[in-house]
Q: What sequence folds into this?
């Protein structure tokens, strides 16, 4: 008996209806990216592991999908590699390439590689799939699309302001009520300094980034396991648990970490961003979250994360400023800032809210019934005129029973059916049926085109 076909866990097939809805998301996002002057690029699905490793922290490195070398990929391994049981070390020897984990690191590599062809500041957008060897669960997939925008080659905080405008406009157009959470890596660095653990910044940010997932006590347990003292954890607690309005949080942060150099810089940057946003008509709620870290080592300034207010699904957009990413590839002193929209989670949010518009489905707007060879040849000419007008339409390919053809149109949610029989061919008055209401109309072809366009 043949094995039932399947796909890997954490990946999905998409039906025509789902693709219509996905394209609605992509088209909405892309149109706003372009409105703000961002230009498209694409990068390969796989990158050299040397490009990817070490950019996402220890946990990120573990989640990289590695591609086995061609040919005898075991030839670089020796007995010591196998006896040591160091899977990470062995993996690097048998894999020189990996699937991209996100679009930001490949973008930094692209900028360095093509720096002589780029006009700075460079504003790019990129909509492509990424892969992570994560445990699949609701809202978390091993293969998923990201929709990124970045500005690289500018230190101005006006770029962060623009990104928040883009975020606000995209989710407003999609009909999703959101909260935009803000933090700054310098604030996190100031926190680490004030609790006298500056060298453990990465351990602290990695742990507190899990706050929403595992809770405060388990975060503290993880910090203890990393070697933080009880005094440091006690000093950290009031900072993490700060509440109230943004203005109150900033005042408290000034008192708690304002004496540290990084902390004061981070607070000033946050105040500048908020003063910009106060001038604009931002619909989303803006919230300072001093525990927000996003767990990525390359952020150096603003950190941005977006949550859907009506669906519990985690982050649906996030990003921040990175000053040192291109430096890793040999191009120093080039600052960038960007955000990534999680198209798959956005899909799940819209689906749960039942908020997809009807027209997002990919389907024909009209189908012509096939009554036979003579009628179908005439219908080909009619179909050509309909297509020239920009209407999506199709001719049923066989002269099957009308009931069968009508059922096909219903199953595909085609809103209109056109009957082209002998009488219609003689008079030029065609019968148009509205599949929702059952109403029928007698129209000339030009009237049919206008009627569907205005419907």
A:
């Amino acid at each position: 008996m043949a094995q039932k076909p399947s796909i890997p866990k954490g990946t999905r097939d998409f039906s025509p209806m789902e693709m219509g809805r996905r394209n609605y998301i992509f088209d909405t996002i892309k149109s706003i990216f372009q409105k703000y002057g961002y230009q498209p690029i694409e990068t390969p699905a796989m990158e050299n592991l040397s490009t990817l490793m070490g950019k996402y922290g220890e946990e990120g490195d573990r989640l990289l999908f590695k591609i086995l070398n061609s040919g005898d990929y075991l030839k670089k391994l020796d007995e010591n590699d196998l006896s040591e049981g160091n899977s990470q070390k062995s993996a690097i020897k048998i894999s020189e390439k990996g699937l991209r984990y996100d679009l930001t690191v490949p973008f930094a590599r692209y900028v360095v590689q093509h720096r002589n062809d780029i006009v700075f500041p460079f504003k790019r957008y990129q909509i492509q799939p990424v892969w992570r060897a994560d445990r699949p669960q609701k809202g978390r997939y091993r293969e998923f699309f990201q929709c990124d925008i970045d500005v690289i080659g500018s230190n101005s905080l006006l770029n962060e302001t623009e990104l928040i405008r883009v975020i606000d406009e995209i989710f407003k157009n999609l009909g999703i009520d959101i909260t935009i959470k803000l933090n700054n890596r310098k604030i996190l660095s100031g926190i680490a300094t004030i609790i006298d653990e500056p060298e453990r910044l990465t351990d602290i940010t990695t742990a507190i980034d899990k706050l929403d997932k595992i809770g405060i006590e388990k975060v503290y347990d993880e910090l203890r396991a990393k070697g933080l003292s009880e005094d440091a954890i006690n000093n950290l607690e009031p900072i993490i648990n700060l509440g109230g309005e943004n203005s109150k949080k900033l005042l408290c942060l000034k008192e708690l970490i304002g004496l540290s150099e990084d902390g004061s810089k981070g607070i000033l940057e946050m105040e500048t961003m908020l003063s910009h946003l106060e001038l604009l008509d931002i619909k989303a709620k803006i919230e300072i979250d001093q525990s927000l870290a996003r767990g990525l080592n390359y952020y150096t300034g603003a950190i941005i994360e977006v949550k859907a207010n009506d669906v519990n699904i985690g982050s649906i957009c996030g990003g921040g400023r990175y000053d040192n990413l291109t430096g890793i590839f040999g191009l120093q002193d080039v600052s960038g800032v960007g955000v990534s929209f999680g198209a798959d989670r956005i899909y799940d949010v819209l689906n749960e809210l039942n908020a997809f518009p009807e027209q997002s489905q990919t389907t024909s707007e009209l189908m012509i019934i096939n009554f036979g060879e003579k009628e179908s040849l005439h219908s080909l000419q009619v179909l050509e005129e309909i297509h020239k007008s920009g209407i999506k339409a199709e001719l049923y390919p066989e002269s099957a029973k009308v009931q069968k053809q009508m059922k096909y149109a219903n199953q595909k949610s085609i809103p209109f059916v056109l009957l082209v029989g002998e009488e219609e061919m003689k008079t030029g008055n065609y019968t148009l049926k509205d599949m929702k209401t059952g109403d029928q109309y007698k129209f000339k072809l030009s009237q049919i085109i206008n009627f569907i366009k205005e419907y």
